[in-house]
Amino acid sequence: MSNQDATTQPPRAPAQRLDCAGVATEVWQAEAAAGAPTLLCLHGSADSAAAFRPLAAALGAHGPASLAIVAPQLPSFGGPADSSVPASALDFDLAWLDALMAQTGARQLFGHSYGALLALRWALSHPGRLDRLILGEPICWHLLDDPSTPDARPRLLEAQCLQPFAAGADEQAMEWLVDYWNRQGFWRDLPPKVQNALLAGARRTELEVKSGSQDLTTREELSCLRVETVVLFGADTTRESQAVCAALAAALPHGRLVRLPGVGHQFLRPCGAVLAELLLAPTAAASASA
């Protein structure tokens, strides 16, 4: 869920449009050194590819970047009566990502929030395809040990978010979701222009939240993922998200949990330099691991 300076607007130039499984996709790509490996970056709900600009800037601060950042804008869906709205955001996006990965040739994948769930599911269905996977607070709520507790996401998501969405109360659902990932009252502090931009993407957000609520990836499946995986979380994020990240890293054979101090769920923009160091020298970040 985006910060106040993030809307669903697409990234500024340089950008190109690709046809990915029949979906016109705007892709922003940072300049990089010749032959640099490609890192494909997937943003979260109600955010945009612009979230990865600080990372790209940090990578390029010391000359030609040694990683080629490619950040697509996730496909948009129409209103509730629009026949183009898929039944499942995750299934739709996995087919879309198949085409995008083939076109870019990326062997590294970085996802945040819903984008991290998407990246994880793609990696699980394409064994041996990736050299590295970076997951920033994926919405894998089923990994919580006790889903019957009052704070468990499945119960709260259904009551506070998915039920209002289903009843057409988009603003009520979005307010709860934005406040949950940021702070109480954050939605009301947003300028009307930003609120309207987020509400315009409510159908996609609803389906993304539903995908996170319904995903049942097992620990057995996770144990088969044989790729270096870094699981990131902000030190000030919700306790549920921290628990999910810890459980995920523990379930992965090559998982490493990294705590980012001084930030919450929305760590992409403030942590560009920290993330660049992590990606360029993963072992150097071990001191930040939880």
The shape, in one word, is globular
Averaging pLDDT over every residue, what do you get? 87
Coarse structural class: alpha/beta
Number of strands: 8
Question: What's the name of the CATH homologous superfamily?
Answer: Alpha/Beta hydrolase fold, catalytic domain
Largest sheet: 8 strands, mixed
The neighbouring-strand order within the major sheet is: 1-2-4-3-5-6-7-8
Strand content: 15-25%
Low-confidence stretches: 2-13, 283-290
In the CATH hierarchy, what is the architecture at level 2? 3-Layer(aba) Sandwich
Q: How do the SSEs run, as a string of H and E?
A: EEEHEHEHEHHHHHHEHEH
Count of spatially separate domains? 1
Account of the protein in words:
- The chain is α/β, with parallel strands linked by helices and 290 residues long.
- It has 11 helices and 8 strands.
- Strand 7, helix 10 and strand 8 form a beta-alpha-beta unit.
- The longest helix has 16 residues.
- The two termini are 24 Å apart.
